[in-house]
């Protein structure tokens, strides 16, 4: 299942905005990239752990998986539509949003690099953390939200 990793700053987005952004991302992925179901994983960075220009960051980073060899003109169309829709919901400035539609092989390298840096015990703890968050999200009917600090 293709994935999207969304990194945002604590207290930057309300739950209503996250739900709107999640729906937007799923709709645009379906329209521009693939009819496959997309797993979105929202990573909330706690206060004081991300900085832009020596100040607490207000930036968001969205990295989305697509097929290897995905056509560039479709990539541009998806990212432009996402940029417009995202910023309409969040009122972020263009420099506060980084979007990437990354091919499957490169995305896998990025996604699995987090596991490689963890010990075996850390991998188990992280997997449990994700599983617990997924169950809570499913019960609450909300997007999958995690704090990457365990």
Task: Sum this structure up briefly.
The chain is 47% helix and 23% strand. The chain has four helices and seven strands; from the N terminus they run βαββββαβααβ.
Question: What does the model show?
Answer:
47% of the residues lie in helices and 23% in strands. The chain is an alpha/beta fold and 150 residues long. A five-stranded mixed beta sheet has the order 6-5-1-2-7. A two-stranded antiparallel ribbon has the order 3-4. Helix 2 links the parallel strand 5 and strand 6. Helix 1 packs antiparallel against helix 2 (72-90). The longest helix has 21 residues, at 120-140. It is globular.
Annotation keywords:
alpha/beta; five-stranded mixed β-sheet; two-stranded antiparallel sheet; 7 strands; 47% helix; globular
Distance between the termini: 24 Å
Q: Averaging pLDDT over every residue, what do you get? A: 88
Describe the global form.
globular
Q: Spell out the helices and strands N to C.
A: EHEEEEHEHHE
Report the structural category.
alpha/beta
| Multimeric organization | single chain
Largest sheet: 5 strands, mixed
């Amino acid at each position: 299942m293709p994935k999207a990793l969304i990194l945002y700053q604590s207290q930057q987005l309300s739950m209503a905005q996250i739900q709107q952004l999640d729906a937007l991302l799923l709709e645009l992925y379906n329209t521009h990239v693939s009819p496959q179901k997309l797993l979105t994983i929202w990573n909330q960075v706690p206060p004081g752990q991300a900085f832009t220009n020596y100040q607490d960051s207000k930036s968001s980073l969205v990295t989305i998986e697509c097929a290897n060899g995905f056509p560039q003109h479709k990539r541009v169309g998806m990212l432009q539509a996402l940029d417009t829709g995202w910023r309409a919901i969040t009122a972020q400035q263009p420099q506060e949003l980084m979007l990437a539609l990354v091919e499957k092989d490169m995305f896998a390298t990025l996604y699995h690099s987090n596991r490689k840096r963890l010990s075996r015990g850390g991998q188990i703890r992280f997997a449990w953390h994700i599983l617990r968050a997924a169950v809570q999200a499913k019960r609450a009917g909300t997007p999958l939200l995690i704090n990457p600090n365990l």
